[in-house]
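Narrative of accomplishments. A recurring question from our advisory board has been how the design workflow behaves on a single, concrete structure rather than in aggregate. To address it, we present the structure tokens for one chain from the evaluation set, followed by the sequence designed for it. No filtering or post-editing was applied between the two.
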């Protein structure tokens, strides 16, 4: 027994544990994306009074897996004038960066691959690099439509990353840390301790700032992940399918996988930053601490999954019944409305922390 314990404490044992955690999260996210994609299509079908996928497997549950198999078995077509190396590398970079962001996401207390003290900075760095995959895909296609679509997408993602960063600063000011686990722990207890509702502990008046900011974060997440009504990079009437025009089979699958992994990631981030993460909100922390460990951790995990799925379904509903914005409207919203509003929110939150709570 002692030998086994000492092995897991060695660099080799630590490496095996870390690789196992990465594989567990990667497979879990992939399976979740498969079923959430089906849910996305079902929601859209219901709004349009259709049934949606209902043939492959019971109730259509295996439709996403059938689609994946179809993409994998199709031939990869690379345009003759394309830069083949960059063309293939672009979707690989996109999907790898999408999964890398999950390394710092806490699913329950202690259940995180890398519990970084600068977890939010890590997320900023990884999400900023995601633009490169899209620009590389558009440029390597050697076609005007994909290139224009990739430039649109890059401009859109950079524009809304500014607002997202400023909104997250509000949460950092309240939590006093950039560690995501500690941010969730700061919202423990009942739901009025969640940062969307002011964060409790003498900061509850900030609900007038932080609840609107949580909604702005949600809308900015739509633009950051190129989801309707902000799916301008793939506007059919103008740019066909944007930066993905020349992609097919597995390479197209990787782009779509990266996009949906990012959407689920942003749903998880909304839950963590503003709505308590794994905290259920209707049980006190003392009650949860008094439960057997396996029951408490089951509650934590199910709570986190439920909140993430809720926000994903909210994104799906927006896709179903909000009309697409024009590109000038998109940029106006980001630079002239969200950016000033998030700046004002940062000033108010900082002033409250210094002069009201700090005093």
């Amino acid at each position: 027994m002692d030998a086994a314990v000492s092995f897991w404490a060695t660099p080799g044992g630590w490496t095996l544990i870390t690789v196992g955690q990465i594989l567990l999260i990667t497979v879990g996210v992939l399976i979740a994306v498969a079923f959430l994609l089906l849910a996305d299509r079902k929601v859209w079908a219901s709004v349009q009074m259709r049934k949606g996928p209902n043939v492959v497997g019971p109730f259509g549950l295996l439709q996403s897996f059938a689609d994946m198999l179809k993409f994998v078995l199709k031939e990869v077509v690379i345009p003759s004038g394309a830069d083949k190396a960059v063309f293939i590398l672009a979707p690989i970079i996109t999907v790898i960066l999408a999964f890398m962001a999950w390394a710092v996401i806490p699913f329950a207390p202690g259940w995180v691959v890398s519990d970084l003290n600068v977890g939010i900075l890590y997320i900023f760095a990884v999400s900023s690099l995601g633009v490169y995959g899209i620009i590389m895909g558009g440029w390597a296609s050697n076609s005007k439509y994909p290139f224009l679509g990739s430039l649109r997408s890059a401009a859109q993602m950079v524009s809304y990353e500014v607002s997202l960063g400023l909104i997250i600063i509000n949460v950092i000011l309240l939590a006093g840390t950039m560690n995501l686990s500690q941010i969730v722990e700061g919202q423990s207890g009942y739901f009025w301790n969640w940062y969307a509702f002011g964060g409790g502990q003498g900061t509850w008046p900030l609900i007038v700032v932080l609840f609107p900011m949580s909604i702005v974060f949600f809308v900015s997440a739509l633009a950051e992940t190129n989801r309707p009504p902000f799916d301008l990079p793939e506007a059919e009437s103008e740019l066909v399918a944007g930066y993905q025009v020349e992609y097919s089979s597995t390479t197209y699958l990787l782009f779509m996988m990266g996009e949906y992994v990012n959407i689920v990631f942003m749903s998880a981030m909304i839950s963590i930053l503003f709505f308590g993460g794994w905290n259920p909100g209707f049980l006190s922390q003392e009650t949860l601490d008094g439960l057997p460990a396996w029951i408490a951790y089951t509650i934590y995990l199910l709570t986190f999954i439920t909140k993430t799925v809720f926000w994903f379904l909210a994104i799906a509903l927006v896709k179903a019944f909000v009309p697409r914005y024009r590109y000038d409207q998109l940029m106006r919203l980001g630079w002239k409305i969200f950016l000033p509003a998030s700046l004002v929110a940062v000033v108010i939150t900082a002033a409250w922390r210094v002069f009201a709570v700090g005093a």
